[in-house]
Amino acid sequence: MNQSNNQCDALIIGGGHNGLVCASYLAQAGLRVTILERRAVVGGAAVTEEFHPGFRNSVAAYTVSLLNPKIIRELELARHGLRVLERRISNFLPTEDGRYLCTGGDATAREVARFSSRDAQRLQDYGTRLDHIADVLRDLVLQTPPNVVRGNWRAAMPQLWRMLQLGGRMRALDLAQQRELLQLFASSAGDYLDAWFESDPIKAVYGFDGIVGNYASPYAPGSAYVLLHHVFGETNGRKGVWGHAIGGMGAITQAMARAAAERGVDIRLASPVQEVMLERGRAVGAVTERGERFHARAVVSNLNPKLLYQRLIDPGSLSAEFRERIAGWRCGSGTFRMNVALSELPSFTCLPGTSLADHHTAGIILAPSLSYMERAYFDARTQGWSRQPIVEMLIPSTLDDSLAPPGRHVASLFCQHVAPQLPNGESWDAHRERVADLMIETVNAHAPNFKAAVLGRQIMSPLDLERTFGLVGGDIFHGALQLDQLFSARPMLGHADYRGPLPGLYMCGSGTHPGGGVTGAPGHNAAREILEDFRRRRL
Ligand SMILES: Cc1cc2nc3c(=O)[nH]c(=O)nc-3n(C[C@H](O)[C@H](O)[C@H](O)COP(=O)(O)OP(=O)(O)OC[C@H]3O[C@@H](n4cnc5c(N)ncnc54)[C@H](O)[C@@H]3O)c2cc1C
User: For ligand 1, is residue 12 a contact (CB within 6 Å)?
Assistant: First the structure.
Protein backbone atom coordinates (compact mmCIF):
# COMPACT_ATOMS: atom_id res chain seq x y z
CA MET A 1 0.00 0.00 0.00
CA ASN A 2 1.22 3.42 -0.81
CA GLN A 3 0.26 4.93 2.55
CA SER A 4 0.44 8.54 1.40
CA ASN A 5 -2.25 8.38 -1.26
CA ASN A 6 -4.18 5.27 -0.08
CA GLN A 7 -3.59 3.52 -3.37
CA CYS A 8 -3.26 -0.27 -3.66
CA ASP A 9 -3.90 -3.15 -6.05
CA ALA A 10 -6.59 -4.91 -4.04
CA LEU A 11 -8.75 -3.40 -1.34
CA ILE A 12 -10.55 -5.89 0.87
CA ILE A 13 -13.65 -4.76 2.73
CA GLY A 14 -13.86 -6.79 5.94
CA GLY A 15 -11.18 -8.60 7.90
CA GLY A 16 -13.10 -11.80 8.60
CA HIS A 17 -11.17 -15.02 8.16
CA ASN A 18 -12.05 -15.16 4.45
CA GLY A 19 -10.87 -11.59 3.90
CA LEU A 20 -7.59 -12.45 5.62
CA VAL A 21 -7.09 -15.61 3.56
CA CYS A 22 -7.87 -13.82 0.31
CA ALA A 23 -5.50 -10.97 1.24
CA SER A 24 -2.65 -13.37 2.01
CA TYR A 25 -2.92 -15.18 -1.32
CA LEU A 26 -3.09 -11.90 -3.24
CA ALA A 27 -0.11 -10.44 -1.39
CA GLN A 28 1.84 -13.66 -1.83
CA ALA A 29 1.41 -13.19 -5.59
CA GLY A 30 2.96 -9.75 -5.31
CA LEU A 31 -0.08 -7.47 -5.08
CA ARG A 32 -0.26 -4.53 -2.69
CA VAL A 33 -3.24 -5.31 -0.48
CA THR A 34 -5.15 -3.33 2.14
CA ILE A 35 -7.90 -4.63 4.42
CA LEU A 36 -10.46 -2.26 5.92
CA GLU A 37 -12.12 -3.85 8.96
CA ARG A 38 -15.05 -2.26 10.77
CA ARG A 39 -14.27 -3.65 14.24
CA ALA A 40 -11.23 -3.07 16.44
CA VAL A 41 -10.19 -6.68 15.90
CA VAL A 42 -9.85 -8.89 12.82
CA GLY A 43 -11.57 -12.26 12.55
CA GLY A 44 -15.25 -11.49 12.02
CA ALA A 45 -17.24 -14.32 13.59
CA ALA A 46 -14.04 -16.22 14.45
CA VAL A 47 -12.67 -14.23 17.39
CA THR A 48 -11.70 -14.77 21.02
CA GLU A 49 -12.74 -12.02 23.44
CA GLU A 50 -12.92 -11.41 27.17
CA PHE A 51 -16.66 -11.50 27.86
CA HIS A 52 -16.43 -11.45 31.68
CA PRO A 53 -13.44 -10.26 33.74
CA GLY A 54 -10.78 -13.00 33.56
CA PHE A 55 -12.85 -15.22 31.22
CA ARG A 56 -12.17 -15.41 27.47
CA ASN A 57 -13.96 -17.46 24.86
CA SER A 58 -14.60 -17.86 21.17
CA VAL A 59 -17.58 -15.56 21.35
CA ALA A 60 -19.32 -16.62 18.09
CA ALA A 61 -17.86 -19.56 16.10
CA TYR A 62 -16.52 -21.97 18.68
CA THR A 63 -15.26 -25.21 17.13
CA VAL A 64 -12.97 -26.07 14.23
CA SER A 65 -13.02 -28.78 11.58
CA LEU A 66 -13.89 -27.22 8.25
CA LEU A 67 -10.73 -25.08 7.98
CA ASN A 68 -9.12 -26.34 4.83
CA PRO A 69 -5.82 -28.23 5.28
CA LYS A 70 -4.32 -26.71 2.11
CA ILE A 71 -4.89 -23.24 3.53
CA ILE A 72 -3.46 -24.20 6.93
CA ARG A 73 -0.37 -25.48 5.12
CA GLU A 74 0.10 -22.72 2.57
CA LEU A 75 -0.40 -19.86 5.01
CA GLU A 76 1.81 -21.69 7.51
CA LEU A 77 -0.73 -21.19 10.24
CA ALA A 78 1.05 -23.61 12.58
CA ARG A 79 4.23 -21.50 12.35
CA HIS A 80 2.06 -18.47 13.07
CA GLY A 81 0.86 -20.06 16.30
CA LEU A 82 -2.18 -22.19 15.44
CA ARG A 83 -2.55 -25.42 17.42
CA VAL A 84 -5.71 -27.52 17.20
CA LEU A 85 -6.61 -30.28 19.68
CA GLU A 86 -9.17 -33.01 19.32
CA ARG A 87 -11.88 -33.37 21.90
CA ARG A 88 -11.54 -36.48 24.04
CA ILE A 89 -14.92 -37.65 22.74
CA SER A 90 -17.07 -36.11 20.03
CA ASN A 91 -20.56 -35.80 21.48
CA PHE A 92 -22.44 -36.42 24.69
CA LEU A 93 -26.23 -36.54 24.58
CA PRO A 94 -28.42 -37.01 27.66
CA THR A 95 -31.53 -38.98 26.69
CA GLU A 96 -35.15 -38.55 27.69
CA ASP A 97 -35.15 -41.71 29.83
CA GLY A 98 -32.26 -40.58 32.04
CA ARG A 99 -29.50 -42.40 30.16
CA TYR A 100 -26.90 -40.88 27.85
CA LEU A 101 -25.03 -41.55 24.61
CA CYS A 102 -21.34 -40.76 24.08
CA THR A 103 -19.94 -40.83 20.55
CA GLY A 104 -16.47 -40.60 19.08
CA GLY A 105 -13.86 -43.10 18.02
CA ASP A 106 -14.06 -46.82 18.63
CA ALA A 107 -16.41 -46.55 21.60
CA THR A 108 -19.34 -45.32 19.50
CA ALA A 109 -20.57 -48.74 18.39
CA ARG A 110 -20.47 -50.05 21.97
CA GLU A 111 -22.36 -47.01 23.19
CA VAL A 112 -25.00 -47.13 20.45
CA ALA A 113 -25.52 -50.86 21.11
CA ARG A 114 -26.96 -49.91 24.53
CA PHE A 115 -29.90 -48.47 22.57
CA SER A 116 -30.00 -50.69 19.47
CA SER A 117 -27.68 -53.48 18.41
CA ARG A 118 -29.00 -53.09 14.85
CA ASP A 119 -27.95 -49.43 14.81
CA ALA A 120 -24.55 -50.31 16.22
CA GLN A 121 -24.02 -52.76 13.36
CA ARG A 122 -24.98 -50.18 10.75
CA LEU A 123 -22.71 -47.43 12.05
CA GLN A 124 -19.67 -48.41 10.07
CA ASP A 125 -21.55 -48.61 6.75
CA TYR A 126 -23.17 -45.26 7.46
CA GLY A 127 -19.78 -43.67 8.15
CA THR A 128 -18.20 -45.18 5.04
CA ARG A 129 -21.04 -44.13 2.73
CA LEU A 130 -21.17 -40.61 4.10
CA ASP A 131 -17.43 -40.29 3.90
CA HIS A 132 -17.39 -41.23 0.21
CA ILE A 133 -19.94 -38.54 -0.51
CA ALA A 134 -18.14 -36.05 1.72
CA ASP A 135 -15.01 -36.72 -0.37
CA VAL A 136 -16.84 -35.28 -3.39
CA LEU A 137 -17.55 -32.13 -1.41
CA ARG A 138 -13.97 -32.00 -0.13
CA ASP A 139 -12.87 -32.04 -3.78
CA LEU A 140 -15.26 -29.27 -4.70
CA VAL A 141 -14.69 -26.79 -1.89
CA LEU A 142 -11.58 -25.29 -3.47
CA GLN A 143 -13.09 -25.20 -6.98
CA THR A 144 -14.87 -22.29 -8.60
CA PRO A 145 -18.36 -23.54 -9.49
CA PRO A 146 -19.35 -23.57 -13.17
CA ASN A 147 -20.85 -20.16 -13.77
CA VAL A 148 -23.90 -19.57 -15.89
CA VAL A 149 -22.74 -17.07 -18.51
CA ARG A 150 -24.28 -15.15 -21.35
CA GLY A 151 -22.28 -14.13 -24.35
CA ASN A 152 -19.80 -15.67 -26.71
CA TRP A 153 -18.02 -19.01 -26.70
CA ARG A 154 -14.89 -17.44 -25.17
CA ALA A 155 -16.88 -16.74 -22.01
CA ALA A 156 -18.59 -20.12 -22.13
CA MET A 157 -15.51 -22.33 -22.65
CA PRO A 158 -14.01 -22.13 -19.14
CA GLN A 159 -17.45 -22.87 -17.67
CA LEU A 160 -17.86 -25.84 -19.96
CA TRP A 161 -14.49 -27.10 -18.81
CA ARG A 162 -15.59 -26.79 -15.17
CA MET A 163 -18.78 -28.71 -15.97
CA LEU A 164 -16.71 -31.49 -17.54
CA GLN A 165 -14.42 -31.65 -14.52
CA LEU A 166 -17.46 -31.87 -12.30
CA GLY A 167 -18.89 -34.65 -14.46
CA GLY A 168 -15.57 -36.51 -14.12
CA ARG A 169 -15.79 -36.30 -10.34
CA MET A 170 -19.36 -37.62 -10.37
CA ARG A 171 -18.34 -40.53 -12.58
CA ALA A 172 -15.81 -41.52 -9.92
CA LEU A 173 -18.82 -42.47 -7.77
CA ASP A 174 -20.60 -45.75 -8.49
CA LEU A 175 -24.32 -45.73 -9.19
CA ALA A 176 -25.27 -46.45 -5.58
CA GLN A 177 -23.12 -43.54 -4.41
CA GLN A 178 -24.62 -41.23 -7.03
CA ARG A 179 -28.08 -42.16 -5.76
CA GLU A 180 -26.93 -41.46 -2.23
CA LEU A 181 -25.57 -38.08 -3.30
CA LEU A 182 -28.88 -37.14 -4.90
CA GLN A 183 -30.71 -38.23 -1.77
CA LEU A 184 -28.41 -36.15 0.41
CA PHE A 185 -28.90 -33.05 -1.71
CA ALA A 186 -32.64 -33.34 -2.03
CA SER A 187 -33.99 -35.08 1.06
CA SER A 188 -34.23 -34.26 4.74
CA ALA A 189 -31.71 -35.19 7.41
CA GLY A 190 -34.60 -36.81 9.31
CA ASP A 191 -35.72 -39.04 6.43
CA TYR A 192 -32.14 -39.96 5.64
CA LEU A 193 -31.35 -40.93 9.23
CA ASP A 194 -34.68 -42.73 9.75
CA ALA A 195 -33.76 -44.95 6.82
CA TRP A 196 -30.46 -45.84 8.49
CA PHE A 197 -31.23 -46.07 12.19
CA GLU A 198 -34.05 -46.93 14.59
CA SER A 199 -32.94 -45.47 17.96
CA ASP A 200 -33.43 -41.80 18.81
CA PRO A 201 -30.11 -40.86 20.45
CA ILE A 202 -27.82 -41.62 17.49
CA LYS A 203 -30.27 -39.99 15.10
CA ALA A 204 -30.27 -36.90 17.32
CA VAL A 205 -26.46 -36.73 17.46
CA TYR A 206 -26.15 -36.95 13.68
CA GLY A 207 -29.33 -35.00 12.96
CA PHE A 208 -28.10 -32.03 15.00
CA ASP A 209 -25.62 -31.36 12.17
CA GLY A 210 -28.59 -31.01 9.82
CA ILE A 211 -30.15 -28.15 11.79
CA VAL A 212 -27.06 -26.21 12.89
CA GLY A 213 -27.48 -22.79 11.37
CA ASN A 214 -30.39 -24.15 9.36
CA TYR A 215 -33.65 -22.65 10.56
CA ALA A 216 -35.80 -25.59 9.45
CA SER A 217 -37.27 -28.82 10.70
CA PRO A 218 -34.86 -31.77 10.51
CA TYR A 219 -37.55 -33.19 8.22
CA ALA A 220 -37.33 -30.26 5.78
CA PRO A 221 -36.03 -31.26 2.33
CA GLY A 222 -32.47 -30.02 1.90
CA SER A 223 -31.49 -30.42 5.57
CA ALA A 224 -29.52 -33.57 4.68
CA TYR A 225 -27.14 -31.33 2.72
CA VAL A 226 -26.52 -29.20 5.83
CA LEU A 227 -25.66 -32.42 7.67
CA LEU A 228 -23.16 -33.20 4.92
CA HIS A 229 -21.75 -29.67 5.05
CA HIS A 230 -20.82 -30.24 8.68
CA VAL A 231 -18.92 -33.48 8.06
CA PHE A 232 -16.61 -32.55 5.19
CA GLY A 233 -13.97 -31.15 7.51
CA GLU A 234 -11.17 -32.72 9.47
CA THR A 235 -8.99 -32.12 12.50
CA ASN A 236 -5.28 -32.86 12.29
CA GLY A 237 -5.94 -35.16 9.33
CA ARG A 238 -8.84 -37.05 10.95
CA LYS A 239 -11.88 -36.68 8.70
CA GLY A 240 -15.18 -35.47 10.13
CA VAL A 241 -13.66 -34.76 13.55
CA TRP A 242 -14.21 -31.42 15.34
CA GLY A 243 -11.49 -29.87 17.44
CA HIS A 244 -10.49 -26.90 19.54
CA ALA A 245 -8.03 -24.18 18.57
CA ILE A 246 -5.87 -23.38 21.59
CA GLY A 247 -6.68 -19.78 22.52
CA GLY A 248 -10.10 -20.09 20.87
CA MET A 249 -11.22 -19.33 17.31
CA GLY A 250 -9.43 -15.98 17.55
CA ALA A 251 -6.17 -17.93 17.51
CA ILE A 252 -7.01 -18.99 13.95
CA THR A 253 -7.66 -15.48 12.73
CA GLN A 254 -4.72 -14.00 14.66
CA ALA A 255 -2.47 -16.57 12.96
CA MET A 256 -4.06 -15.58 9.63
CA ALA A 257 -3.46 -11.90 10.38
CA ARG A 258 0.21 -12.61 11.15
CA ALA A 259 0.51 -14.58 7.88
CA ALA A 260 -1.06 -11.67 6.01
CA ALA A 261 1.13 -9.05 7.70
CA GLU A 262 4.25 -11.09 6.90
CA ARG A 263 3.24 -10.96 3.23
CA GLY A 264 2.91 -7.18 3.47
CA VAL A 265 -0.87 -6.80 3.85
CA ASP A 266 -1.85 -3.49 5.42
CA ILE A 267 -4.66 -4.15 7.92
CA ARG A 268 -6.64 -1.10 9.03
CA LEU A 269 -8.87 -1.72 12.05
CA ALA A 270 -11.83 0.41 13.15
CA SER A 271 -12.28 1.42 9.51
CA PRO A 272 -15.91 0.77 8.53
CA VAL A 273 -16.55 1.20 4.84
CA GLN A 274 -19.48 3.40 3.98
CA GLU A 275 -19.51 3.14 0.24
CA VAL A 276 -17.83 1.43 -2.68
CA MET A 277 -16.60 4.11 -5.07
CA LEU A 278 -17.66 3.64 -8.68
CA GLU A 279 -16.44 5.34 -11.83
CA ARG A 280 -18.33 4.73 -15.07
CA GLY A 281 -19.89 1.61 -13.54
CA ARG A 282 -16.58 0.18 -12.35
CA ALA A 283 -15.47 -0.30 -8.71
CA VAL A 284 -12.38 1.83 -8.08
CA GLY A 285 -12.12 1.94 -4.29
CA ALA A 286 -14.02 2.63 -1.10
CA VAL A 287 -14.70 5.45 1.28
CA THR A 288 -14.85 4.86 5.03
CA GLU A 289 -17.35 6.34 7.48
CA ARG A 290 -14.58 8.75 8.55
CA GLY A 291 -14.36 9.95 4.95
CA GLU A 292 -11.00 8.35 4.09
CA ARG A 293 -10.80 7.37 0.44
CA PHE A 294 -8.93 4.28 -0.76
CA HIS A 295 -8.27 3.60 -4.44
CA ALA A 296 -7.67 0.13 -5.84
CA ARG A 297 -7.72 -1.81 -9.08
CA ALA A 298 -9.78 -4.56 -7.44
CA VAL A 299 -12.29 -4.15 -4.61
CA VAL A 300 -13.10 -7.35 -2.74
CA SER A 301 -15.98 -7.73 -0.32
CA ASN A 302 -15.86 -10.17 2.63
CA LEU A 303 -19.44 -9.16 3.55
CA ASN A 304 -22.78 -10.88 3.24
CA PRO A 305 -23.84 -10.09 -0.38
CA LYS A 306 -26.91 -8.35 0.99
CA LEU A 307 -24.78 -5.94 3.03
CA LEU A 308 -22.54 -5.21 0.07
CA TYR A 309 -25.17 -4.62 -2.57
CA GLN A 310 -27.88 -3.05 -0.43
CA ARG A 311 -25.77 -0.82 1.83
CA LEU A 312 -22.47 -0.01 0.14
CA ILE A 313 -23.40 0.37 -3.53
CA ASP A 314 -25.43 3.03 -5.24
CA PRO A 315 -28.61 1.11 -6.22
CA GLY A 316 -28.79 3.04 -9.50
CA SER A 317 -25.67 1.20 -10.69
CA LEU A 318 -27.35 -2.21 -10.43
CA SER A 319 -30.04 -3.66 -12.66
CA ALA A 320 -33.54 -4.04 -11.22
CA GLU A 321 -33.31 -7.78 -11.75
CA PHE A 322 -30.07 -8.03 -9.77
CA ARG A 323 -31.49 -5.89 -6.95
CA GLU A 324 -34.54 -8.13 -6.80
CA ARG A 325 -32.36 -11.26 -6.54
CA ILE A 326 -30.30 -9.74 -3.74
CA ALA A 327 -33.48 -8.74 -1.92
CA GLY A 328 -34.53 -12.40 -2.17
CA TRP A 329 -31.24 -13.71 -0.70
CA ARG A 330 -32.46 -15.65 2.34
CA CYS A 331 -30.65 -14.97 5.61
CA GLY A 332 -31.52 -15.91 9.19
CA SER A 333 -30.06 -19.08 10.67
CA GLY A 334 -32.20 -18.92 13.81
CA THR A 335 -29.23 -18.94 16.14
CA PHE A 336 -28.97 -17.67 19.74
CA ARG A 337 -25.46 -17.71 21.20
CA MET A 338 -24.32 -17.37 24.80
CA ASN A 339 -20.97 -17.40 26.59
CA VAL A 340 -20.99 -18.35 30.22
CA ALA A 341 -18.35 -18.04 32.97
CA LEU A 342 -18.59 -20.97 35.40
CA SER A 343 -17.33 -21.56 38.93
CA GLU A 344 -17.38 -25.32 38.38
CA LEU A 345 -18.14 -27.94 35.75
CA PRO A 346 -21.73 -29.10 35.29
CA SER A 347 -22.69 -32.30 37.06
CA PHE A 348 -25.17 -34.15 34.85
CA THR A 349 -27.95 -36.16 36.46
CA CYS A 350 -27.26 -38.99 34.00
CA LEU A 351 -23.48 -38.86 34.57
CA PRO A 352 -22.77 -37.04 37.86
CA GLY A 353 -19.55 -35.39 38.95
CA THR A 354 -17.83 -32.01 38.70
CA SER A 355 -14.35 -33.46 38.20
CA LEU A 356 -13.19 -33.15 34.62
CA ALA A 357 -14.26 -36.22 32.62
CA ASP A 358 -14.31 -37.08 28.91
CA HIS A 359 -17.93 -36.03 28.40
CA HIS A 360 -17.13 -32.50 29.62
CA THR A 361 -14.85 -32.05 26.59
CA ALA A 362 -17.55 -33.10 24.11
CA GLY A 363 -20.14 -31.21 22.14
CA ILE A 364 -22.97 -31.68 24.64
CA ILE A 365 -26.26 -31.88 22.77
CA LEU A 366 -29.39 -31.07 24.75
CA ALA A 367 -31.98 -32.21 22.22
CA PRO A 368 -32.72 -35.90 22.65
CA SER A 369 -34.52 -36.72 19.39
CA LEU A 370 -35.33 -35.49 15.91
CA SER A 371 -38.96 -34.98 16.92
CA TYR A 372 -37.80 -32.72 19.79
CA MET A 373 -35.85 -30.66 17.23
CA GLU A 374 -38.84 -30.51 14.91
CA ARG A 375 -41.07 -29.29 17.73
CA ALA A 376 -38.52 -26.62 18.62
CA TYR A 377 -38.65 -25.35 15.05
CA PHE A 378 -42.45 -25.22 14.87
CA ASP A 379 -42.63 -23.49 18.28
CA ALA A 380 -40.14 -20.89 17.07
CA ARG A 381 -42.14 -20.28 13.90
CA THR A 382 -45.26 -19.51 15.89
CA GLN A 383 -43.90 -18.06 19.15
CA GLY A 384 -40.35 -16.87 18.40
CA TRP A 385 -38.64 -19.58 20.45
CA SER A 386 -39.45 -22.92 22.02
CA ARG A 387 -40.05 -23.57 25.72
CA GLN A 388 -37.92 -26.67 25.06
CA PRO A 389 -35.06 -25.21 23.03
CA ILE A 390 -32.13 -26.95 21.35
CA VAL A 391 -28.83 -26.24 23.09
CA GLU A 392 -25.38 -27.47 22.26
CA MET A 393 -22.88 -26.73 25.01
CA LEU A 394 -19.13 -26.85 24.65
CA ILE A 395 -16.73 -26.22 27.55
CA PRO A 396 -13.45 -25.34 25.82
CA SER A 397 -11.63 -24.62 29.08
CA THR A 398 -11.60 -28.39 29.63
CA LEU A 399 -9.03 -28.57 26.82
CA ASP A 400 -7.45 -25.13 27.08
CA ASP A 401 -6.39 -23.50 30.35
CA SER A 402 -5.74 -20.14 28.67
CA LEU A 403 -9.43 -19.24 28.71
CA ALA A 404 -10.44 -19.17 32.39
CA PRO A 405 -8.78 -18.70 35.80
CA PRO A 406 -7.55 -21.94 37.43
CA GLY A 407 -10.41 -24.18 38.56
CA ARG A 408 -12.97 -22.09 36.64
CA HIS A 409 -14.49 -22.71 33.23
CA VAL A 410 -16.08 -21.10 30.19
CA ALA A 411 -18.95 -22.61 28.25
CA SER A 412 -20.32 -21.83 24.80
CA LEU A 413 -24.07 -22.31 24.43
CA PHE A 414 -25.02 -22.61 20.79
CA CYS A 415 -28.81 -22.56 20.73
CA GLN A 416 -30.70 -23.38 17.55
CA HIS A 417 -34.16 -22.49 16.34
CA VAL A 418 -35.10 -19.09 17.56
CA ALA A 419 -36.91 -16.90 15.06
CA PRO A 420 -34.53 -14.53 13.24
CA GLN A 421 -37.32 -11.94 13.41
CA LEU A 422 -39.84 -12.26 16.21
CA PRO A 423 -43.56 -12.55 15.47
CA ASN A 424 -45.62 -9.34 15.61
CA GLY A 425 -42.59 -7.20 14.88
CA GLU A 426 -41.29 -7.43 18.45
CA SER A 427 -37.62 -6.66 19.05
CA TRP A 428 -35.09 -9.20 20.29
CA ASP A 429 -33.89 -6.50 22.69
CA ALA A 430 -37.12 -6.91 24.64
CA HIS A 431 -36.73 -10.69 24.99
CA ARG A 432 -33.02 -11.58 24.98
CA GLU A 433 -32.63 -11.77 28.79
CA ARG A 434 -35.72 -13.94 29.14
CA VAL A 435 -34.58 -16.32 26.42
CA ALA A 436 -31.09 -16.42 27.96
CA ASP A 437 -32.68 -17.44 31.29
CA LEU A 438 -34.55 -20.20 29.46
CA MET A 439 -31.31 -21.51 27.91
CA ILE A 440 -29.64 -21.61 31.34
CA GLU A 441 -32.71 -23.40 32.79
CA THR A 442 -32.56 -25.89 29.92
CA VAL A 443 -28.99 -26.83 30.81
CA ASN A 444 -29.91 -26.82 34.50
CA ALA A 445 -32.65 -29.37 33.90
CA HIS A 446 -29.89 -31.82 32.91
CA ALA A 447 -27.16 -30.56 35.26
CA PRO A 448 -28.74 -29.14 38.43
CA ASN A 449 -25.60 -27.30 39.64
CA PHE A 450 -25.33 -25.31 36.40
CA LYS A 451 -27.40 -22.22 37.16
CA ALA A 452 -25.72 -21.61 40.51
CA ALA A 453 -22.29 -21.99 38.88
CA VAL A 454 -22.88 -19.13 36.42
CA LEU A 455 -20.61 -16.18 37.34
CA GLY A 456 -21.32 -14.12 34.25
CA ARG A 457 -22.91 -14.40 30.84
CA GLN A 458 -22.84 -12.82 27.40
CA ILE A 459 -25.95 -12.94 25.24
CA MET A 460 -26.06 -12.84 21.44
CA SER A 461 -29.58 -12.81 20.02
CA PRO A 462 -29.93 -12.79 16.23
CA LEU A 463 -30.10 -8.99 16.47
CA ASP A 464 -26.93 -8.85 18.60
CA LEU A 465 -25.14 -11.06 16.04
CA GLU A 466 -26.18 -8.64 13.32
CA ARG A 467 -25.09 -5.55 15.23
CA THR A 468 -21.79 -6.94 16.48
CA PHE A 469 -20.58 -8.94 13.50
CA GLY A 470 -22.60 -7.61 10.57
CA LEU A 471 -24.39 -10.97 10.16
CA VAL A 472 -27.62 -10.13 8.36
CA GLY A 473 -30.58 -11.55 10.34
CA GLY A 474 -27.92 -13.14 12.58
CA ASP A 475 -27.17 -15.60 9.76
CA ILE A 476 -24.02 -17.48 10.72
CA PHE A 477 -23.40 -18.57 7.12
CA HIS A 478 -24.04 -15.22 5.29
CA GLY A 479 -27.09 -16.87 3.67
CA ALA A 480 -29.01 -20.12 4.08
CA LEU A 481 -27.32 -23.30 2.85
CA GLN A 482 -30.29 -24.38 0.77
CA LEU A 483 -30.22 -25.91 -2.68
CA ASP A 484 -31.12 -22.69 -4.50
CA GLN A 485 -28.33 -20.83 -2.63
CA LEU A 486 -25.50 -23.33 -3.15
CA PHE A 487 -22.68 -23.95 -5.59
CA SER A 488 -23.43 -22.27 -8.98
CA ALA A 489 -26.32 -20.45 -7.29
CA ARG A 490 -24.25 -18.93 -4.48
CA PRO A 491 -24.94 -16.07 -4.27
CA MET A 492 -26.86 -16.35 -7.54
CA LEU A 493 -26.67 -17.95 -10.98
CA GLY A 494 -24.33 -15.94 -13.16
CA HIS A 495 -22.20 -14.71 -10.24
CA ALA A 496 -20.85 -17.90 -8.69
CA ASP A 497 -17.27 -17.16 -9.78
CA TYR A 498 -16.68 -14.52 -7.07
CA ARG A 499 -17.31 -11.72 -9.59
CA GLY A 500 -20.36 -9.51 -9.23
CA PRO A 501 -22.08 -7.55 -11.98
CA LEU A 502 -19.80 -4.52 -11.58
CA PRO A 503 -16.31 -4.82 -13.08
CA GLY A 504 -13.55 -4.57 -10.50
CA LEU A 505 -15.80 -5.74 -7.65
CA TYR A 506 -15.39 -9.25 -6.18
CA MET A 507 -16.85 -11.29 -3.32
CA CYS A 508 -14.77 -13.50 -1.00
CA GLY A 509 -17.07 -14.16 1.98
CA SER A 510 -19.27 -17.03 3.11
CA GLY A 511 -22.07 -15.87 0.80
CA THR A 512 -20.04 -17.44 -2.00
CA HIS A 513 -19.15 -21.10 -2.64
CA PRO A 514 -18.69 -23.24 -0.55
CA GLY A 515 -20.58 -21.20 2.00
CA GLY A 516 -20.36 -20.70 5.73
CA GLY A 517 -18.12 -22.08 8.40
CA VAL A 518 -14.52 -21.30 9.18
CA THR A 519 -13.19 -22.92 6.00
CA GLY A 520 -11.11 -20.18 4.35
CA ALA A 521 -12.28 -21.66 1.05
CA PRO A 522 -14.22 -18.66 -0.34
CA GLY A 523 -11.23 -16.41 0.36
CA HIS A 524 -8.85 -18.87 -1.28
CA ASN A 525 -11.03 -19.33 -4.38
CA ALA A 526 -11.76 -15.63 -4.80
CA ALA A 527 -8.03 -14.85 -4.71
CA ARG A 528 -7.45 -17.32 -7.55
CA GLU A 529 -10.10 -15.63 -9.71
CA ILE A 530 -8.83 -12.14 -8.94
CA LEU A 531 -5.26 -13.11 -9.79
CA GLU A 532 -6.54 -14.60 -13.03
CA ASP A 533 -8.08 -11.22 -13.94
CA PHE A 534 -4.82 -9.44 -13.08
CA ARG A 535 -2.94 -11.92 -15.28
CA ARG A 536 -5.34 -11.37 -18.16
CA ARG A 537 -5.03 -7.62 -17.68
CA ARG A 538 -8.71 -7.22 -17.02
CA LEU A 539 -7.78 -5.07 -14.02
C1 LIG B 1 -22.71 -17.84 16.60
C2 LIG B 1 -21.91 -18.49 15.51
C3 LIG B 1 -21.40 -19.75 15.70
C4 LIG B 1 -20.66 -20.36 14.68
N5 LIG B 1 -20.06 -21.55 14.92
C6 LIG B 1 -19.16 -22.03 14.03
C7 LIG B 1 -18.30 -23.08 14.38
O8 LIG B 1 -18.28 -23.53 15.52
N9 LIG B 1 -17.44 -23.55 13.44
C10 LIG B 1 -17.39 -23.03 12.18
O11 LIG B 1 -16.60 -23.51 11.34
N12 LIG B 1 -18.20 -22.00 11.83
C13 LIG B 1 -19.05 -21.47 12.74
N14 LIG B 1 -19.80 -20.38 12.44
C15 LIG B 1 -19.79 -19.87 11.06
C16 LIG B 1 -18.54 -19.07 10.76
O17 LIG B 1 -18.10 -18.41 11.89
C18 LIG B 1 -18.80 -18.06 9.65
O19 LIG B 1 -19.45 -18.67 8.56
C20 LIG B 1 -17.48 -17.45 9.20
O21 LIG B 1 -16.72 -17.00 10.30
C22 LIG B 1 -17.73 -16.32 8.23
O23 LIG B 1 -16.47 -15.82 7.83
P24 LIG B 1 -16.31 -14.68 6.74
O25 LIG B 1 -14.88 -14.28 6.74
O26 LIG B 1 -16.91 -15.11 5.47
O27 LIG B 1 -17.22 -13.50 7.28
P28 LIG B 1 -17.26 -12.75 8.69
O29 LIG B 1 -16.62 -13.54 9.74
O30 LIG B 1 -18.68 -12.35 8.89
O31 LIG B 1 -16.38 -11.46 8.44
C32 LIG B 1 -16.86 -10.31 7.78
C33 LIG B 1 -16.07 -9.13 8.32
O34 LIG B 1 -16.51 -7.94 7.67
C35 LIG B 1 -16.55 -6.89 8.62
N36 LIG B 1 -17.43 -5.84 8.14
C37 LIG B 1 -18.79 -5.84 8.05
N38 LIG B 1 -19.23 -4.68 7.51
C39 LIG B 1 -18.12 -3.93 7.23
C40 LIG B 1 -17.91 -2.64 6.65
N41 LIG B 1 -18.93 -1.87 6.24
N42 LIG B 1 -16.64 -2.19 6.53
C43 LIG B 1 -15.58 -2.94 6.93
N44 LIG B 1 -15.73 -4.17 7.49
C45 LIG B 1 -16.98 -4.67 7.63
C46 LIG B 1 -17.06 -7.58 9.86
O47 LIG B 1 -16.78 -6.82 11.03
C48 LIG B 1 -16.29 -8.89 9.81
O49 LIG B 1 -15.05 -8.80 10.44
C50 LIG B 1 -20.49 -19.72 13.44
C51 LIG B 1 -20.97 -18.43 13.28
C52 LIG B 1 -21.66 -17.80 14.30
C53 LIG B 1 -22.13 -16.40 14.12
Answer: no
